[in-house]
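# step 3/5: fold
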Amino acid sequence: MKIKQVIASVALSFLIFSSAYAQDIKTDSISSDIISQSEENDSKQALSDELSQIKAQLTGIEKEQQLEKIWKRKKYWKIGIGNPNIERTDGEPMAWNTDFSIFIQRGKTVYLHSKPIADMIKIGIDYGFMDISYAKLKLKTPDISGTSSSTNSGDGTSNGFDEIVSDAPTGSVFSALGVDLGMHKFEYGLHVGPSVSVNPWNSLIVAAYFHIMPTASGIVENDRFSYGFGCAMSAGLSVSYKALSIGVEGLWSSVKYRQTSFNEGAGDDSESEEGLNGIFAQKDFKLKQKGPRFYVSFRF
């Protein structure tokens, strides 16, 4: 009996020890699983945060690239038509309408800051070294009787340009032949001034600007030629979508001209304050111009 009791005691002790050992192993396993799961969650969270940061950086880069693509078109060519009205501001009152007028302009916009204000507004400076315009003019001014007179072509009748040089029209080779080439004005100018551009949606840009335009001008009618220098100004509004733009601007100027013509009445030996050896007659006059210009622009 004693042997059986000893064996039973040993077996019971072994069972108790095995149970305790298994419990410890289970507890350690549960703790290890909890720690491992916590570490895995921390790793997932860190990875998620890193992915969010990368995504935000990519989104920022894409946004910057999109903005750069929208604002990258800084150079422009403008081709358009105008309708200037011209009048003399000294001496005999005269005014001219425009039969036809065309211009071409080249320029560039330099923005004063790289990042748009509120992601949609940029302030810049426009400048360019070429603004060429041509206009065919038609006289419209009251005559002595108070009625309106205008250009008469082909019969030698003056259209007003001759009267600037002298009080009465003088004969010319063209008038003697019954030829009237009409009155033509050519101008070459520069331009510089501020501009404000707004990008309200997608690639659409609306711009407002003001330009100062130093200008050289010439007027030709038959054997009469005038040249002058002055300063024009323009203010306008344009709407652009990608490379294509349309716009309208108002242009006004005041230019002082000097007119030169062949003096048929002077003798070969005569001297004149108005010309060289009496061969050429000269007279100064001033013309004021104002009117709209409409154009299509290509930006690149």
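# step 4/5: annotate
Strands lie at 75-82, 85-88, 95-111, 121-142, 148-150, 183-201, 204-221, 224-241, 244-262, 280-299.
# step 5/5: archive (pending)
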